[in-house]
Amino acid sequence: MTGEDSADIAHEASEVKEKNEAIEKNGSVSAVGEEPKAFIKGKRRSEQEAQVKAGKQKGQLPKKRFYRARAHSNPLSDCQFSVPTTPSEFDWSESFPEFFAQEETTGDKDLKVRFADIGCGFGGLIVQMSPLFPKTLMVGMELRDKVSEYVKERIVALREQHPGQYENISVLRTNAMKYLPNYFEKGQLTKMFFLFPDPHFKEKNHRRRIISTALLAEYAYIMAVGGILYTITDVQELGEWMKAHLDAHPLFHPLTDEELEKDVCVPLLINATEEGQKVERNGGSTYKAIYRRIAGLGNIGA
């Protein structure tokens, strides 16, 4: 056997060894010198995710799988994001550019957000309400970074797919339990939504619940008299908790059955939200508490 033959045999043995190692690691054979199939698949996924998030696939709705996040976040934790000191400091023109561009020509100086979906999740509610209230500015507020980014990309894609539509909705990443008065003036909102909030089952965590005596005072402050506050949950104990706190507050009064039947937003509490649709598919129960903001005695607190 010549030295050249020995070198060829050694080279072939090396290739076989590399192939066997690839099989053990990836469960499939990749050509020597090529990236393993599992790596290629992951690489393509990462490239696709980056492309979607970079907005390169214009007009396409974002994929939820690229925006995975925990079901809930701790609302009492300190997250790092900018917050205006007062409502007048916040520039809403970046959220609703089309409306504020029209403001310059029409002279309408009363462009204000009127609806707020607190803990908006993937934005299903504001997307469904947008064509029902085309002249009303509405915002979804979400604490989770990836989820709020998804809603932002979803709105961008919808605006590109349907020119002239969905210009009245936007999303903000913020902590609504801490900063609502930083964004909204007294009596500004006409509708507030709290759909399937975190139940915080442990008694020691009840202070984190989005409906409480202290927070209802804030909501009453930023809501207009006659405005409506909507809550819904699939947790009976939480539903009873929210109803009890609203019943105890002097500035909120429950809607009558007749009023509920006429309210176009009530069916959307389930139909327009991902969580509501899941509960309905599974045959679960829901518990609503829908109240109107009323004037206080002698208009104190109105």
From TrEMBL:
GO BP terms in the entry: RNA (guanine-N7)-methylation; tRNA methylation
UniProt-annotated catalytic positions: 198
GO cellular component terms listed in the entry, alphabetical order: nucleus; tRNA methyltransferase complex
Keyword Cell inner membrane: no
Gene behind this protein: LOC112276886
Designated name of the protein: tRNA (guanine-N(7)-)-methyltransferase
Job of this protein: Catalyzes the formation of N(7)-methylguanine at position 46 (m7G46) in tRNA.
Species whose genome carries this gene: Physcomitrium patens (Spreading-leaved earth moss)
Transmembrane segment boundaries: 210-232
Keywords: Membrane, Methyltransferase, Nucleus, RNA-binding, S-adenosyl-L-methionine, Transferase, Transmembrane, Transmembrane helix, tRNA processing, tRNA-binding
Pathway: tRNA modification; N(7)-methylguanine-tRNA biosynthesis
Cited Gene3D superfamilies: Vaccinia Virus protein VP39
Lineage, opening ranks: Eukaryota, Viridiplantae, Streptophyta, Embryophyta, Bryophyta
Alphabetized SUPFAM superfamilies for the sequence: S-adenosyl-L-methionine-dependent methyltransferases
Location of the protein in the cell: Nucleus
Main localization of the protein described in the UniProt heading: nucleus
InterPro entries: SAM-dependent_MTases_sf (IPR029063), Trm8_euk (IPR025763), tRNA_(Gua-N-7)_MeTrfase_Trmb (IPR003358)
Segments of skewed composition (Basic and acidic residues): 8-24
Domain of life assignment: Eukaryota
